[in-house]
């Protein structure tokens, strides 16, 4: 029905370029008074693009500034490790290294001014994407703790799985709120009957996994806080 309607419009009316700049081209039908409204539309659209660009630029600058003073492992005093400084990794390096049972490549050490007691299982990484907003804004540096076992239901975690594809990064790891249903299998073992990975931002959908084996799914780390 909708496709037929659009084809009828296309056949009867001439499509026009309503607006064009270096980055965007809007194509549509002349449903407004061009003489009176086109300039008003152009100004409003330019303002929207400008504000979005400024907002995104500020986020990038803030992130770059945060990671601009990392201390290399060679120059890092041992006494400051995990007391006032935490190691910084990329989430991809952490997830990949975990799946391969290796140590992730260290980007450096960052001084953290937070009223928290650190331990050797903690690290800092930048989170990119909107799916966990508002709790984790896009581009935020965050503190994580490597998985220590126990129940994670209701917690925000970094998971790695061959069955997962993050909708924003297309990577085999994601950060979501975790919920699991387990069932007993032969030999007294347990398996995940269903795992639900939920975004806090409801513009995104849940990732649902069923009958998941331990080899196919790993909780790599737990989200602690945004720095």
SSE blueprint and pairings:
Elements lengths: L1 H11 L3 E5 L4 E4 L5 H33 L18 E4 L2 H9 L8 E4 L10 E6 L12 E7 L9 E6 L11 E12 L5 E9 L8 E6 L4 E10 L1
Antiparallel strand pairs: 1-2, 3-4, 5-6, 6-11, 7-8, 7-11, 8-9, 9-10
Describe the structure.
- The protein is an alpha+beta fold and 227 residues long.
- The chain folds into two domains: 65 residues, no CATH class; 149 residues, Umud Fragment, subunit A (Ribbon), CATH 2.10.109.
- 23% of the residues lie in helices and 32% in strands.
- The chain is built from three helices and eleven strands.
- Strands 5-6-11-7-8-9-10 form a seven-stranded antiparallel β-sheet. The chain has a two-stranded antiparallel ribbon with strand order 1-2. A two-stranded antiparallel sheet has the order 3-4.
- A hairpin with an 8-residue loop joins strand 9 and strand 10.
- It is flat and about 70 Å long.
- It starts with a helix and ends with a strand.
- The mean pLDDT is 80.
Number of discrete helical segments: 3
Strand order of the largest sheet: 5-6-11-7-8-9-10
Q: What CATH first level of the largest domain would be assigned? A: Mainly Beta
Proportion of β residues? 25-35%
* Major sheet characteristics: 7 strands, antiparallel
Record field, number of beta strands? 11
**CATH homology superfamily of the largest domain:** Umud Fragment, subunit A
CATH architecture of the largest domain: Ribbon
What is the alpha-carbon Rg in Å? 24 Å
Distance between the termini: 51 Å
- Uncertain regions spanning at least 5 consecutive residues: none
Order of helices and strands: HEEHEHEEEEEEEE
Helix % is: 10-25%
Tally of separate domains: 2
Q: Write down the oligomeric state.
A: single chain
Mean pLDDT: 80
CATH topology of the largest domain: Umud Fragment, subunit A
Structural class: alpha+beta
Spatial shape:
flat
């Amino acid at each position: 029905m909708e496709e037929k309607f659009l084809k009828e419009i296309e056949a009867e009316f001439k499509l026009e370029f309503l607006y064009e700049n270096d980055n965007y081209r809007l194509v549509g039908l002349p449903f407004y008074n061009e003489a009176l409204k086109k300039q008003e539309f152009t100004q409003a659209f330019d303002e929207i693009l400008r504000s979005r660009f400024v907002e995104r630029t500020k986020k990038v600058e803030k992130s770059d500034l945060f990671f601009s003073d990392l201390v290399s492992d060679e120059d890092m005093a041992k006494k400051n490790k995990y007391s006032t400084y935490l190691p910084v990794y990329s989430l991809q390096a952490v997830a990949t290294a975990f799946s391969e049972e290796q140590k992730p490549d260290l980007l450096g050490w960052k001084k953290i001014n937070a009223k928290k007691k650190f331990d050797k299982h903690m690290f800092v990484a930048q989170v990119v994407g909107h799916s966990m907003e508002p709790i984790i804004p896009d581009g935020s540096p965050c503190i994580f703790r490597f998985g220590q076992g126990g129940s994670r239901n209701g917690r925000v975690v970094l998971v790695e799985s061959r069955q997962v594809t993050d909708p924003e990064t297309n990577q085999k790891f994601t950060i979501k709120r975790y919920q699991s249903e387990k069932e007993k299998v032969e030999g007294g073992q347990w398996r995940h009957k269903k795992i639900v990975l939920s975004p806090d931002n409801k513009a995104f959908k849940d990732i649902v996994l069923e009958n998941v084996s331990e080899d196919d799914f790993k909780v790599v780390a737990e989200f602690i806080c945004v720095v």
